[in-house]
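Summary for the steering committee. One of the milestones for this cycle was to obtain a three-dimensional model of the protein with 6-O-phosphono-alpha-D-glucopyranose bound, which we needed before selecting residues for the alanine scan. The sequence and ligand used are listed below.
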Amino acid sequence: MCGIIGYVGKRDLASVLVAGLERLSYRGYDSSGIAVISKGELSAWKSEGKVQRLIDRYIKSIKISNATVGIGHTRWATHGEPTDINAHPQLSSDQKIGLVHNGIIENFAFLKKNLQPRYLFKSETDSEVAAHLIEAEFHRTHSFLQAFQKTLSQLEGTYALAIISEHDPQTLFAARLGSPLIIGLGEDENFIASDLVALIPHTRNFIYLADNEWAIISASEVQVYDQAGNRVKKAIKHLKINDSDLHQPAKGHFPHYMLKEIFDQPEILKRILSTYTSDEVELRFKSLAAHTDPLKKCEKFLIQACGTSWHAGLVAKYWLEEFAHISTEVDISSEFRYRKILARNHDILLALSQSGETADTLAGIREVRKLYNKLPVISFINRSETTMEHESDAIIPSLAGTEIGVASTKNYIAQLGTLFLFALYLGQLKGILTAAKIAEYLRAFAMLPALINKILAYRKTIKAISSRYATDKGFLFIGRGMNYPNALEGALKLKEISYLYAAGYAAGELKHGPIALIDENMPVIALIPHTSNYSKMMNNLEEVRSRKGRIIAIVTEGDKDVTAIADTVIPIPAIIEELSPLLTIIPLQLFAYDIAVALDRDVDQPKNLAKSVTVE
Ligand code: G6P
């Protein structure tokens, strides 16, 4: 998986490629590299670590003259450790062909066996096999184009590929199956990349390659072909998109993007409220105008998502069932696509994704399309112009703005906000909620930004509390009802950025196993605001207490009972139960952040993770 970029034209190749890689780093950042053809010869530079390391080790000191074409890659390791050798570009044995790859070549072991020992494999990657295979096919056919086509026909799995070769030193070859690839059109220059974000500084004209299409790209021409080798006439998409819509370079006075994004949350909820309501009294979802009939008739929602987006789906289930009386199943996408999906005529698929590129979630959509091609697909996506957007019947933008921190915070709030209003909208559409009830919910929603700001103002105290737990090795997070998914999300945040073990549980499940872990060394973070589950949560806290567990409780301001038995309490303002998850999550985000900072972790780009996971 990874981000790929390619360029053919007269600009300074190293800087175009490296700038692109920096923008694509959200797709992986454990190693990176570039390769160019200069004066007919291929040269490559690769380094483990982030793009900055590649720049420091090589790019600052190299001088590339008369280069014609180049490719670059930023990696999230699947096959082989993140080392210099496993970094892309991967080269053929004769070093005349270089390629970058996003995806997984699933039959690489079989292909490799057939090519060895004649072709010298250096890396442990699946991708390298494609470079050797092109070389082998070139030896047979003596035509680079034929070798490229022959190679594509043998690859199984998923790929976005960009290839350069000394055999055709003015041309970029590209192909796509399952992983995104976009061609950017310039004047006497052309680009390719995994994502618009890398192309937008250079052009607003794009061609989206479809699965099984491949392209021959020179500085003056782009030719696209289908699998059978027939020329395809592709539409050029002109996007009126601003760089700032896609990229947010400044973190202002905040030491990390994650902290800035936590502080962005009140403004995002204001934006969501004003976008999805008229004067904060009536719900309006313009993008759903053509779908009101299926939504009115909907009997079941199938929600599928990954990571933090999955947690948002788990919260949404409560709202959709309560406000719209629509039964809702929530699946992890990588499980969803491999189970027997049972859907009926009036069901609707909801896909949730910050990036709109997550491979598992896309595969879930495609599986449903294959089985039930009439089932509407509505996606809640934060980024614009994504693969998921193109594959959905309608989208509801999350409006979080560009999220840079790999651990998602502001998009979680944005997803919760949009899903809450969406559920109210359905309650309105189906006549289940009265106008008065909706107005009451919207008034409560409108209070959220101020209430979140109140929690954020409490930041120093939360920091002091968190620092007391930075030496602990494991944590349990517990909650019930609508706050149970936040126990999962709080634990996920802590794991992602502090590398400490944490697990989230529905508090009622404690007694079925996890309680065995509780002793004086185990901090238990309990979400216990004033909700209908309060007394049940209290019972669970007593169970923890009687086993000497250390309780950190997120409570409603003024709470006395929990305060009496907890080691520490973090108060949040009072709010109706249905909106409580949008407040209880804030101290958990800060808790994870402060512990990670205390441990000197790479908060915005934690090890082993990627912002967008584009492989299965
Ligand atoms: C990656 C990210 C997570 C994110 C998940 C789903 O694992 O590191 O933060 O929640 O993908 O991403 P999506 O873009 O589909 O919401």
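Key point for the committee: The mean pLDDT is 95.
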